[in-house]
Structure formats: structure tokens, C-alpha cells
Amino acid sequence: MATIKQRYEPNIKNTKYLKYPIKSDYRITEGFLYSKQELSVRGHYFHKGIDYACKWGTPVYASASGYLVASYHRYPTLNEDKTLMLYKGLPQGNGLGYFIQIFHPEKVCGIKGGRITQYGHLSKFAPGTIWIFI
């Protein structure tokens, strides 16, 4: 079984194509990988994203060109084998609230097969909005 570093290190590399998704004042509340909050909520230390805090209603922009591929209001957290993740016997939702996923093709990110970025904890999502151009 791969260590956390072995599993997620490739996700950290080759991110020069990404831009900050918030263009106004913000602070980072949770960094990538290590998280005391994830330990208390889910029983593990790793956090698969970066959480930004900013004023309510602040626009969030795509970090790079791509295609909107999904938008939801929360979904269950699954293990690698697609079974529902449990902690202390309870199912784990990821708590993302409104979120979108954007696929960045290989010609944008330089990574074979492309990359998906996810934007969560959004206060609203405007269907029909044109988000990204290539």
C-alpha cells in the first residue's frame, strides 16, 4: 500500500498552470495534505485540497482553463473500492456544500489524461453561467 506522500505527491507537482481562484482578500484555513481538522472529523490527517476563507459572496474563478463537468450539493465520501467511508460507524459526507468540478485537458495542464479541480463551500452556483474558455 502506498504511503500518503507517495499517493499524493504527484498531485502537488506540475501545478504551475494553476492560478489562485480568489482575486480579493482571503486567508488559507486548511492546507493540502496535513490537517488536524480532518483527523478530528474523519480519523485521518490528509486533506485533499486547500481551503480559502473570504467574504460571503466573493466570486470564485477557475484556476485554469477547462470544462465544467459536474456541479452538486454535497456527495458521500467513498473509499478507493467505492464503498461508503465510515468513521466511528457513521457515514462521512465531505461537507462541500455547493461545489463544481472543472476538467483541465492535457493541453492546458501538461499532465497526461488531464486534471480535475474542485471548488467547494460555494454559497451559490449560477446554472447557465459560462465559466471557462479554452
Automatic annotation (TrEMBL):
Highest taxon listed in the record's lineage: Bacteria
SUPFAM superfamilies per UniProt: Duplicated hybrid motif (SSF51261)
InterPro entries: Dup_hybrid_motif
Protein name according to UniProt: Peptidase M23 domain-containing protein
